[in-house]
Amino acid sequence: MIAEIITIGDEILIGQIVDTNSAFIGKQLNKIGVDVHQISSIRDDKQHILNALTEAQSRADIVIVTGGLGPTKDDITKHTLCEYFNDELVINEEVLTHIEQLFDKYIKSPISEINKKQALIPSKAEVLYNEFGTAPGMWISHDNTVFISMPGVPFEMKSILINHAIPKIQERFDRPSILHKTILTYGMGESRIAEIIEKWEDNLPDFIKLAYLPNLGRVRLRLSARGKNKELLEKGIKDAVEELQPLIGDIIVGYDEDESIEKVIANLLTENKLTLSLAESCTGGKIANSFTAMEGASKYFNGSIVPYATNIKSKVLGVDFGIIKEHSVVSLKVVEAMALQTKQLFGSDFSIATTGNAGPTKGDSDAEVGTVCIAIATPKGIVSEEFVFSNHRKRTIGKAMNKSLEMLQEQILKHLS
Amino acid sequence: MIAEIITIGDEILIGQIVDTNSAFIGKQLNKIGVDVHQISSIRDDKQHILNALTEAQSRADIVIVTGGLGPTKDDITKHTLCEYFNDELVINEEVLTHIEQLFDKYIKSPISEINKKQALIPSKAEVLYNEFGTAPGMWISHDNTVFISMPGVPFEMKSILINHAIPKIQERFDRPSILHKTILTYGMGESRIAEIIEKWEDNLPDFIKLAYLPNLGRVRLRLSARGKNKELLEKGIKDAVEELQPLIGDIIVGYDEDESIEKVIANLLTENKLTLSLAESCTGGKIANSFTAMEGASKYFNGSIVPYATNIKSKVLGVDFGIIKEHSVVSLKVVEAMALQTKQLFGSDFSIATTGNAGPTKGDSDAEVGTVCIAIATPKGIVSEEFVFSNHRKRTIGKAMNKSLEMLQEQILKHLS
After folding, report:
1. Is 0.80 surpassed by the pTM of this model?
2. Do B198 and B140 fall within a single domain?
3. A340/chain B closest Cα distance in angstroms
4. DSSP assignment of A280-311, as one string?
5. Range of A336's domain?
6. Could you give the angle at the alpha carbon of B38 between the alpha carbons of B37 and B44, nearest 5°?
7. What ipTM was predicted for this assembly?
8. Residue B15 φ then ψ, to 5°
């Protein structure tokens, strides 16, 4: 079962929008054992669309097309599909009624001629209902390939895909199994891991494929198994993961690809009724944002301060200015004082403090660009460490966050053990 | 001048990562008059890569390939390029020295055999220096097409593209002109705009194309002009924009697509030597992070506090607890007090405060999920407003940030006028 995705729209090719739809579609298809072979982003151009449809049909059982279904003149997907299928557009009464209801409820104006045209669909198409918008999804079978066309607006596409297209694919196609297992590791580089597990990798069964997904000090290892016998795949993955344990068990922090370290820490804190506060000079709010983006943050997150200007570190946070003067603003002494002050000020069990120079130019300290000091204050004491992460601002901030979380997790686990 | 982009990696096809590289590359090529015809995301599979290279070469003058250049076994781009070009891998001494320096500085361990292999490049390739990583970019001319291969790690790719690939393209190719002008509108639907400007659209010169890009109440209209005579294109776009003014001038809010509002505010503050501080209860660090991610933040950003727990709002920030008790924590009175206290505490000219309930459940207040209060303290006073944004946590936080920035910008402009 092979699928291809075609996303239509000049705005993707000139980089005005990032195509997030394809990743969403890929993930959903993958879950039901449909294998995405290629994603092609193409122009709002009739001939280009026709060529892409022909090529995709020659390789795939399912072709998913998004975009180009709006009411305006630059949207030509529907007409082009008609030409490709040698079909004609007809008014679909059900869709027309839906459009009229949407206008009545949200726009509070009569439906325009332009919007009426959104109810035109190829006569051979089955409608995939679009709860949130006026452009319907369409399902067209043609020479042993199924074509699914959906609007490019992400939340409309998602609703059509999940509620209508995926169930229909499951109903109409026999599919092989695809299983993935993601192993999250911390604190070791991709190439060092590869050396350690080389023999294990060479001995993986043929139906299992390994991929390395490195990201700022974290490396995810993704095992993908594919075949007809689901039990065999499950056993293969289980065995492979078990054999990995003695090799790199000490750097494995989790297995669920969706489980981030923030989530793991949030769960640890919540379950044990522990609280956290932050002083983020170098990381500038990034860690606070990563916790507060998750629901339930108020259960463990007391708050945070970004003492960005040097004088704020003493004036608001209460770090002794003498320490800053003596040791410089990027120093272990200062970051420890920041963490301890924050813990006290916010009345939390743990606190993280970061201070550093992310660059590109030197700031209020002589510290080399990329230098970051991190401290974790715990119920029993404090740990701190100095790093030189990189010469790239966002990378240094990202690495400082990841390292802070790693250090915090270690201290929480130590506290609980 | 036609380019195609090929992104290699199973992780894109199974939706584990979103391909943001292509949009960045598309935008940069577009700026220098190179037209991206297609973006293809393909598997880590030799035959698939070879097919994609052949197809892209048949259509394009420049083929840009990203991904598959890591040190591990699943990364096969380099070997496949060698097969395609009938070439062989040779050690590049310059790259090897660079890798050794990176290891010496950041990894503090001797270079491994696996990493040494990163210095292998096809003998026909010119190196595009990768300042931030071990996998070099490569430039290979082959049968009138130029192939550019870069690692998939976004910040490494960006640096290679901007500093090396783009200048080389500009130097080696004659290019036609492509001009874009994006018109930002607010508060009118796509189809209603289309009706109003239909005649204008029909009368656009042939070399100008119009696209509608709708997104949650905002519709961007993009005009693209293409041709040899840059002056003619400029005049065509200028005339078209002028003719649009009497038709929809009242809903046009801006023209520049690139400039984020954070960047605009950062420039305004820096140029006028003004400073900013934040109290982000509802937005939880997101606004601070958006400013501190940009270099030069220390010139205007004094700092921020995330008074997440209700008691922190009074204990650390100093908001009178009586006000919180009387008006509830999500109220205009409280958010105004937060902004004023923050401005004073951090000694800044402006401050933003947010408090709200992003959901999914109600917190320390009875406010409906999605309710957010925002205040801007200015050198002369304070403004505040209450909103109900959405029933989706991240969406509410994002909208609260955008609205805060919009309100801040308005107040800064008012102050400066």
Report:
1. no
2. no
3. 15
4. ESSSTTHHHHHHHTSTTGGGTEEEEEE--SHH
5. 261-416
6. 150
7. 0.71
8. 75, 20
